[in-house]
C-alpha cells in the first residue's frame, strides 16, 4: 500500500540524486523489475551493473539515470526510503502504484505534479492512505480532491509562530 503525507515534510529526501549516488547497490541492476523501471522511465537498457545504454546519452553509469528512475529504484529496493513525490514525473505514477502493490511505501507530496490517473483501475485496486487524516483514497478523483484540500495548507507548528 502507498501512504502519502500531503504537504511539505522536512524529513522527506528531496535530493534523490545525491542519496542514490551514495547508497545504491550494484546488485539492484540484476533485478528484472529495476531493469523495467529504467526501460519505462528513461527508455534505456541495462547492459550490466555499471553500464546503461541511453538512446540520448549513449553509455552511462547508474549515477546518470533520471531522478524519477532513481527514486523508483530506491522505493522498490529500500524499505525505509522516504521521499517527496515532487521528484517524480507523471511517467512514474503507474510504477509507483505497481511498487505499492508489491510492498508498503510511504512518501510525501508537496506539489501538484502527481495525480495517479490509474488509481483504482484493475491493475491498481489498492487504495492510497492519506497520512494526514487516515482516509483511504480509492480512485483518481478522490486523490485529486484530497491533494487540493491539503497540499499547500499551512500546518501549525506546536509552539511556533502562527503569524
TrEMBL record:
Q: Name it.
A: DUF4869 domain-containing protein
The species this protein belongs to is [Clostridium] aminophilum
Lineage, top ranks: Bacteria, Bacillati, Bacillota, Clostridia, Lachnospirales
